[in-house]
Amino acid sequence: MVISAETALAGAKITADHLVIYDDDHYYLGSVLALQLRKDGHRVSLVTPAGRPCDWGQWTTEVYQSNTALIEAGVEVVTNTLLVQANQGEVILECTLTGERRALTCDAVMPLTRRLPVLGFYDGLRDMGVGLAKAGVQSLIRIGDAEAPHIIAAAVQSGYRAAMDLGEEVDITQKYGRREHPV
């Protein structure tokens, strides 16, 4: 059974005893949901490909308090691990360091992974076509959650980037996707 984070956040009754939260978000949501589900009486395994839950929390100093709370609440924390398959009654996990696979029995999986862009407003504006030009709008770009849903700081950065690039033809992969490639 797959349960969405939205289901838990809405306070819906969850009947599964043992839940695996697969947290590829790396911020606070996995930890918060794990703690709430433990409080509600569920057994919880928090699986993350990161080296620790709430890894982004190192920049806000909440990682230490958050991880202490997880351990004290009895959440099973599984780090450096990918969820590669979800079957009825189990998930298949793979160590990111060794590639070793193992099964973990569970009643449900809650994925906190890639989120889909929220495009309603953007699509509505784009569909106006020539009406935009008549209104004086010279360009339309996707930013924030219309580009890639993430934390609020990412939306702020997206808006900043859009403002810095305003009026320019920018290949974002060249300007923002740079990586070091030592020879």
| Largest beta-sheet characterization | 4 strands, parallel
State the end-to-end CA separation. 47 Å
The CATH class of the largest domain turns out to be: Alpha Beta
Return the average pLDDT rounded to an integer. Answer: 88
Which strand order do you get reading across the main beta sheet? Answer: 3-2-1-7
What proportion strand? 15-25%
Number of strands: 7
- What is the gyration radius calculated from CA atoms? 20 Å
Structural class based on helices, strands and sheet pairing: alpha/beta
Per the CATH scheme, the topology name of the largest domain is: FAD/NAD(P)-binding domain
Q: What's the architecture of the largest domain, going by CATH? A: 3-Layer(bba) Sandwich
Uncertain ranges: none
Total of DSSP H or I helical runs spanning 4+ residues: 7
- Helix-strand pattern, N to C? HEHEHEEEEEHHHH
* Name of the CATH homologous superfamily of the largest domain: FAD/NAD(P)-binding domain
Percent of residues in helical segments?
25-40%
